[in-house]
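Duplicate of earlier report; GNAT family N-acetyltransferase input re-posted below.
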Amino acid sequence: MTSIIINKASPEDWEIIQELGILTFTETFSEDNSEEAMEKYLEESFNTEKIKSELNNPDSIFYIAWEEDDPVGYLKVNSGNAQTELQDNNSLEIERIYVKKSHHGKKVGQLLYDQAVDTAKALQKSYVWLGVWEENLRALQFYRKNGFVEFDKHIFRLGDEEQTDLMMKKTLD
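Output:
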């Protein structure tokens, strides 16, 4: 396997983020959710205006994982008011670690996660947190392996459907 390079995304990368977001979210969740819920969520979360706005938010940072010229995954982290919940100045939210199915098991997710931790440390945050769907067993196993513990739950809306996300955090050294 060729090496994976992680680069910080710029606002000009909006189409790459949009395409990766739609593809990876669909690959990961379409089997377990209705087509209507998926379509509504993808339109709300990955429309051009929203992606551009998120990329221009100074409290959100995106990173793209590249295998040569092929974007294979991405990371979105949030601090301050960009966090979806908590908005604790001592924390960094990992909102998304999405990897193409073709690259599952190739350590791309681990590299993106490591980038999130490095970013949190550089921003002098004391912990990282995230929400993960309670039925996404692969992700839960990944986060537990990386030292995350559950501390709460919240409702995640996928279209008109409500799902339970486990909120997990990891204290940094």
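The chain has a mean pLDDT of 95.

Merging into the original ticket.
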